[in-house]
Amino acid sequence: MYSYSYPRPAYTVDAALLYRGNILLIKRGKEPYKGQWALPGGFMEMDETPETAVARELFEETAVDCQNLQQFKTYGAIDRDPRHRTISTVFYYQWPSHQSIETTAGDDAAAVQWFSLNDLPALAFDHQLIIKELVDFLGLQGV
User: Fold this and answer.
1) Where are the beta strands (DSSP E) in the chain?
2) Other CB atoms within 10 A of residue 27 CB
3) Is 10 helix (H, G, I), strand (E, B) or coil?
C-alpha cells in the first residue's frame, strides 16, 4: 500500500434517522465530546463504500438495520472535528410512521434516544447545522 508524505483528511459518515417528527441521536461514550449527543456515525474502513460504512455504523451504535439510507450532503469545514481534518458524508432515511423501530445503544454509544426535531439537545461537532439543513431540505418542521 502506498504511503503519502503529506497529511490527508479522515473520512467519516453520519446517519440521520427520522421517525414521526423525531431524530435518533446517540450519547457519545468517548472523546471528543464524551457525554454529548450526536448523529450515529464514524470512520469508514478501507474495504467499505460510504453506503456500507453508514449502515454498519448505524447498526453498531443503535442496533437499527437500515439499508435504505440516502445520501444528503458532505460536510468539510476545516475545524469540524477537534482531533484532525475530517470530512463527513451525511445519509438520511425517514422511517415509515406505521412501522415500529427498536433501538439499543452499542459500540461507542453510551445511550441512544429519539429527540423531537423541535426540542434538540446541544449537539457535538457540527450536527446542529447538519440537522437544520436536512430539516430545511426535507421541508420538515423543527430546529
Assistant:
1) 10-19, 22-28, 37-38, 41-43, 70-75, 86-94, 109-116
2) 18
3) strand
pLDDT digits (tens, 9 = 90+) for 29-57: 999 999 999 999 999 999 999 999 999 99
Paired with 28 in beta bridges are: 109
Model confidence over 82-117: pLDDT tens digits?
899 999 999 999 999 888 899 999 988 999 999 999
Contact assessment for residue 128 and residue 120, using Cβ atoms and an 8 Å cutoff: yes
pTM for the full predicted model: 0.92
* Residue-wise DSSP of 115-127: EETTS---BSTTH
The CATH fold assigned to 10-138 is Nucleoside Triphosphate Pyrophosphohydrolase (3.90.79)
